[in-house]
Every structure is written in C-alpha cells, then in structure tokens.
Amino acid sequence: MIAGHAYSLGVGLATHNVKDFELVAHMVQIVAL
Q: Which of 5, 25, 26, 29 is deepest in the core (most CB within 10 A)?
C-alpha cells in the first residue's frame, strides 16, 4: 500500500497534473482495498 502511494505521488509530480494525480490516487486506493 505504501508503494502504491509512493507510485501515485511520483506520477503526480511527473505529470504536474492534479486531476491525473487524484485519478491515479483514487485507483490505487481501490486496488489496495
């Protein structure tokens, strides 16, 4: 789960797109559950 959050954070920083970051973070949370 920590790796997922780190990955989503990295994607957010790489894309500099808040919407993409939120989308990825939401998807990661679903997968984690």
A: 25
Domain containing 8: what range? 2-32
Half-sphere exposure in the Cβ direction for 25 (13 Å, CA): 12
Q: What does the pLDDT profile of the chain (33 residues) look like in tens digits? A: 566 776 766 665 665 666 767 777 787 776 766
What total of structural domains would you count in the chain? Answer: 1
In this predicted structure, what is the pLDDT of residue 29?
75
Contact 31, 4 (CB under 8 A): yes
Q: Dmax over Cα atoms in the chain, in whole Å?
A: 26
Extract the tokens encoding 9: 């954070």
